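Handout, page 2. Input:
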Amino acid sequence: MMNGKLGNPTRGETLGEGGPRCSFEPRKASTTRQGLPAVGDGGLDRTHTWGRTYWGGSLFCLVADVRIRERTANAHSFEDVLRALAASGADVESHWEIARVLDTGDRATGTDVLASLYGEMALAPGTVDLASLWKQLGVGVDGDRVKFDDTAPLASVRRGIAGR
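Output:
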């Protein structure tokens, strides 16, 4: 996964002593697929496997971020959702109904992305075409190097997410 403004990442690259590491590793890119539904899967709210819960949640957040940025021309992102939740009092000690979480996040971004995506992935085995998503974002792998295609349809979204 891409997670941060890291310059030109290579597999496992460390940026300075004790600095952040690029988490996009070509061999681990397929790990994200663990978040995709298996045969008989009932969706993220009905899964009982660690990989599907963890990676499925990661995929939900990634797709939500891409859709929010695409619909708002990078004016809003999933970070705005998290900030709005924190500002509204959500924390690890509180329990919110999912409708409240989705509504708070969608209001913060001025979209219906969270509610819509939740409808796609929560109770039904919605899927994400990862190969297509990476291609649209302009993210590819050439050996051990991550390469970016600035002519890709969602390259501006990728730059908003990763700074490249």
